[in-house]
């Protein structure tokens, strides 16, 4: 089972440049979360701070009672064993075949025999649908296969937290859909805590249990998927529904004149909330809730057509 990540008042700068400040959220154990934000808002920096590769200026990241922002290096090393990371490009060693790439963390961090290593590697290759490709080099396979190989490597130490840094970058919509299904299936199988940084709106609308949005150096909102997909908060509404009307401009923020010019425009209706992607075997994940449950509990009327199974199927959700 995954572990909870509690982030409190986290602030990070590079020199005089504030990346984001006072970020507070709790990533629930075993759930799938997505972190969104316009380009340059520090989403990858946030991932690196969670795993202790970057130190925040202020704030804390509490994992199993340890604040990794201030703990000694030896404790941080132990906490990092809870993590698996899928990097944007897979980060495979080009001179190693897939088998050796995936075996690398086991050989570096465990005392397993080669027969035990082989059992684990073949299990993870099977898990991501890559059995039979173990002798290929990273340069001999497609981008989607490299992503899955990188995911297999991220899973070999049986992590309780898995971080995905833009797993859909460089993938076409079909491969992204396959990867999304794989992520949901894996969460159902291993019950780890998943955090996905992505720009893909369809992924954000259909995969996670919770969504966060970084914008203009702060966390605009974080909470259950249905909360954000029904939100009238301008930046959340604009980003999650890919609309032009709102505070986000081509570069960063729109100026006062642009916002004033938009003030008389009628906002487009919120699109229906799609069904959440389910595991391939049809058995709901432990953290998965009934469609519309959050809206009902909070007295929110979802947009017309929400949670329509037929609508979700035709839109590729």
TrEMBL record:
Region (Disordered): 266-317
Keyword ATP-binding: yes
Gene3D superfamilies the UniProt entry points to: P-loop containing nucleotide triphosphate hydrolases (3.40.50.300)
Alphabetized SMART domains for the sequence: AAA
Polar residues bias: start-end ranges: 307-317
InterPro entries in UniProt: AAA+_ATPase (IPR003593), ABC_transporter-like_ATP-bd (IPR003439), ABC_transporter-like_CS (IPR017871), P-loop_NTPase (IPR027417)
MF annotations from Gene Ontology: ATP binding
Source domain of life: Bacteria
Pfam families reported for this sequence: ABC_tran
Alphabetical keyword list: ATP-binding, Nucleotide-binding, Transport
Domain spans labelled ABC transporter: 5-241
Protein name per the record: Ribonucleotide transport ATP-binding protein mkl
UniProt organism field: Nocardioides aquaticus
Lineage: Bacteria, Bacillati, Actinomycetota, Actinomycetes, Propionibacteriales
